[in-house]
From TrEMBL:
It is found in: Cell membrane; Membrane. It comes from Malus baccata. The chain crosses the membrane at residues 123-145, 175-195, 207-225, 231-254, 275-302, 308-341, 362-381, 461-483, 490-512. One of its GO terms (molecular function) is transmembrane transporter activity. One of its GO terms (cellular component) is plasma membrane. This is Choline transporter-like protein. PROSITE patterns: PEPTIDASE_A1 (PS51767). Gene3D superfamilies: Acid Proteases. Belongs to the CTL (choline transporter-like) family.
Length: 575
């Protein structure tokens, strides 16, 4: 049943209400409410609206504004000290005076949302991360200082006398090699940001096509250096990379389209690039201490096995720390971009003041625990999902292998529901915990069909290839110098230097990835937001979404038909 209500034709605040008596029923389905203006514009209220109690007698209201000083309600938004109003001239419905922030819009209409309440989330993981930093920092200081300018300065070798070797070194000998790695990684990251507008697409294409060759060349060099284990590892990596690129080659045009749109968005907000520069400097400061300890481990007299175990532990710590900083940038940048898309531009009058500083404050305080938690698992699960999808698309009619891969695929899909990168946009916007944010984002994609588009897009994989290539260049630079000076340590220094380069380049790449996630979340929330920002890109996304949904529908029909034929065959055989 549909109903209409005429509002006063005046500019300014107008009172209206849509109230229900819930005394006789436990729940009421909230109707869809749209505002139709004389100029033809239609402004729907946000989805998932709920009734808010405004009286003690069982009255719940969908829109209510009794007095200018009381609680004013529209849909799922409430404001204190305002009145529900509309502006016929500008086709806007909202609060008067304008004290609301945006969350969802119609066709050019004003969006409606309240500033979300912020509470500390995932505090346990925040504590774990901080304790980990303190313990690792102390260990790095001790390991580096023990061989700084003097062997066994802290007399640690007495505890490891069973594992001692004759070869001994000094921390500063290898610290310089890591300094080179830090410099190369920073240069690559800053170069990426500097050429973001003019050469970003070309650099990403080069990363996709050259990574396989680079891995193969390094594999040959490692075999020549008689490092057979690492040579085989890099050769396998080159083969897997080649197979993956073949499996996604038909998706690359759409992926590059999305990345170009993301670069366009980033370039329109120069301040977010300054955030990336700042966090790269913070990461460099931590790497000064980390490389000091790692150099002490490489220089130690412990056997190769002991040194490798220590370096693996330190590398896991560096990976987590780097992922936390990358995802902190992700939250800051995506929160800013979400606001820009919702409000219709950086200079929109409804844009909240100091948006970037607010995003920064939330990211490093109330939401930092969620970032630490998500950073532990998201990258691994996402990479595993890409690989399984690539293998699954090339299996063909091998039903046995397809069954095994499908089992792994559905297992990973279950994990993706609770660990995905789109959670960081929800964290930035609403301040929810990580798992809650990840689940909400994934349910939003599945309920709107945008998940088909997200699954088809390979922008995250392309950016990861650029990150890996940057790490390989960094590791190669440090490895060549190590080969000249200390040939027996080339793999140790080169592999850890590669990780340093990946972290630094990743801090530059995450700016574009944040824009991609913001685009998809906004498209799922309200496609008209993207159309208002870039109509041509909106049309291309909508066309691709239509194609992907048709493709899935046709595949489902094929599977159903095949299943019916199998059942029919089984029934006719006994006869």
């Amino acid at each position: 049943m549909k109903g209409t209500k005429d509002l006063p034709v005046t500019k300014g605040a107008a009172l209206f209400d849509a109230c229900y008596d819930l005394s006789s029923r436990k729940s009421v389905e909230v109707p869809t409410v749209s505002f139709h203006f004389a100029d033809g514009k239609v402004l729907p209220l946000p989805a998932k609206n709920f009734l808010i109690p405004v009286d003690s007698d069982g009255t719940f209201c969908f829109a209510f504004a009794p007095t200018p000083s009381s609680l004013s309600i529209i849909g799922n938004v409430q404001q204190q000290g305002t009145r529900v109003g509309f502006d016929l001239l500008n086709s806007v419905v909202g609060f008067s005076p304008n004290q609301f922030s945006s969350r969802r819009s119609g066709d050019g209409g004003q969006a409606l949302a309240a500033e979300p309440s912020r509470r500390w989330r995932d505090i346990f993981w925040l504590g774990v991360f901080l304790i980990h930093l303190i313990l690792v920092g102390c260990a790095l200081t001790v390991l580096g200082a023990n061989r700084f300018k003097k062997t066994d300065r802290l007399n640690i070798d007495r505890y490891t006398h069973r594992f001692l070797e004759n070869e001994r070194g000094l921390t500063e000998n290898y610290w310089l090699l890591y300094a080179l790695a830090g410099g190369v990684g920073t240069l690559l990251g800053w170069t990426w940001l500097f050429f973001l507008r003019s050469q970003a697409t070309h650099m990403m294409k080069v990363a996709v096509h050259i990574l396989t060759t680079y891995l193969a060349v390094i594999s040959v060099l490692l075999f020549w250096m008689e490092q057979f284990f690492w040579g085989v590892a890099f050769a396998i990596g080159a083969v897997l990379q080649f197979m993956y690129v073949l499996s996604i080659v038909d998706r690359l045009p759409f992926t590059m389209l999305v990345l170009q749109a993301a670069v366009k968005m980033v370039w329109s907000l120069r301040e977010v690039m300054r955030v990336a520069y700042a966090f790269m400097l913070i990461m460099l400061l931590w790497m000064v201490l980390w490389s000091f300890g790692a150099a002490g481990v490489v220089a130690s007299s412990i056997g190769d096995g002991g040194r490798w175990w220590l370096l693996v532990v330190l590398s896991i710590s560096l990976f987590w720390t780097g992922a936390v900083l990358c995802n902190t940038v992700h939250v800051i940048v995506s929160g800013m971009m979400f606001l820009v898309l919702i409000h219709g531009g950086r200079e929109a009058p409804s844009m909240p003041p100091n948006s970037l500083m607010k995003s920064l404050r939330y990211a490093v305080t109330t939401s930092f625990g969620s970032i630490c938690y998500g950073s532990l698992f998201t990258a691994f699960i996402r990479t595993l999902r890409w690989k399984i999808r690539g293998v699954r698309s090339k299996i063909g009619n091998n039903e046995c292998l397809l069954c095994c891969v499908d089992f792994l695929f559905h297992l990973v899909e279950t994990l993706v529901r609770f660990f995905n990168k789109y959670a960081y946009v929800q964290i930035a916007v609403s301040g929810k915990g990580f798992n809650h944010s990840a689940r909400d984002a994934w349910e939003l994609f599945q309920s709107t069909g945008v998940e088909a588009l997200v699954a088809y897009d390979c922008s995250g994989a392309v950016l990861l290839m650029g990150t890996v290539l940057g790490g390989l260049i960094t590791g190669t630079s440090a490895g060549i110098w190590t080969w000249i000076k200390y040939r027996d340590r080339v793999v140790m220094v080169g592999s850890t230097a590669m990780l340093m380069g990946m972290v630094l380049v990743g801090l530059a790449m995450v700016v574009v990835e944040s824009a991609v996630t913001s685009i998809y979340i906004c498209y799922a929330e309200d496609p008209l937001l993207i159309r208002r920002w870039d109509a041509e890109f909106f049309n291309q996304m909508s066309e691709m979404l239509h194609q992907r949904l048709q493709h899935r529908s046709s595949r489902a029909r094929e599977v159903l038909t095949h299943h019916h034929l199998d059942n029919h065959t089984q029934e006719t055989l006994p006869a």
